[in-house]
Amino acid sequence: MSYSQSRALWAITKASFKAIFSQPSSLFFSFLFPVIFILIFGAFSERPPEAYKIAISPQSDTSSVLYDSLKVNPRIEIISYADTAKQNEDLIKGNISALLNIVPYTINASKYYKVSLLSSEASGEPFTI
After folding, report:
1. Model-wide pTM > 0.70
2. Residue 102: exposed, middle, or buried by beta-carbon count in 10 A (0-12, 13-18, 19+)?
3. Phi, psi of 5 (to 5 degrees)
4. What is the pLDDT of residues 71-123, one digit of tens each?
5. Residue 19, C-beta contacts closer than 8 angstroms, at least 6 positions apart
6. CA 128-99-124 angle, 5° bins
7. Which of 37, 40, 101, 124 is the most buried (most CB within 10 A)?
């Protein structure tokens, strides 16, 4: 019988699980204690969740219903920029979460909006959704 890395890994894994599940105290401290710890200290938090900072493109339609709903949303903070270079720099650095562009268009007398969202991972590599 030849030596197999996967068989050895499986044997070690089985032995570890047997050791963990054979003692009730290790089960408690491995699984339940961290969950209880998170619940207790999470309940003491009085701080509301932080608002997302979003910049609106200068070409966006700010008279749209979408823009108005974003403006009154407490979880979204709209940041205005006079300079698009500073806006793009803040987006790349992660100072703002996204850049939103709202463009209206009409088809058969019905008004629609095309929404473009540009975001980054604060690593300098933006991606478009």
Report:
1. no
2. buried
3. -60, -45
4. 999 888 998 888 888 988 888 888 888 888 888 888 888 888 888 888 876 54
5. 26
6. 65
7. 101
